[in-house]
Amino acid sequence: MLQQEFVMRCPQGFHLRPAQVLMESISKFNSTVTLKKNGTEIETDAKSILGLMSLGLENGESVTVTVNGSDEQQAMDTVRKLFESNFGE
CATH code at 9? Predict the structure, then answer.
């Protein structure tokens, strides 16, 4: 199991396009990927677009990403690259 904290740096927050990019990017992995909005009890499966949108993640807020499975390192690397690139925005 891998865990890492990331900060949302998209000016409009975690809206539909970044959520879709994340979901599509990690759907190819066998590992489970969950995001938990820090400071809340809100946690969701990153392969669920509705779950991702329910996070209500704003610019500057942070999430803890947990990845567990056979390809967890590759999945976490993908998530890290997406956050570092602001999901291509």
Answer: 3.30.1340.10
Taking a C-beta distance cutoff of 8 angstroms, is the pair 67, 79 a contact? Answer: yes
- Structural domain harbouring 81: 2-88
Q: What is the pLDDT along the chain (89 residues), one digit of tens a residue?
A: 999 999 999 989 889 999 999 999 999 999 999 999 999 999 999 999 999 999 999 999 999 999 999 999 999 999 999 999 999 87
Radius of gyration, CA atoms only, the chain: 11
Q: 3 forms bridges with which residues in the sheet?
A: 66
Catalytic residue from among 9, 10, 13, 15? 15
Q: Provide the domain count of the chain.
A: 1
Q: Supply the pTM of this predicted model.
A: 0.93
- Examine the residue annotation and report whether 27 is marked as an active-site residue of this protein: no
Q: Nearest CA to 79 among 37, 20, 26?
A: 26
Q: Distances in Å between the alpha carbon of 78 and those of 39, 41, 85, 89? A: 24, 24, 11, 16
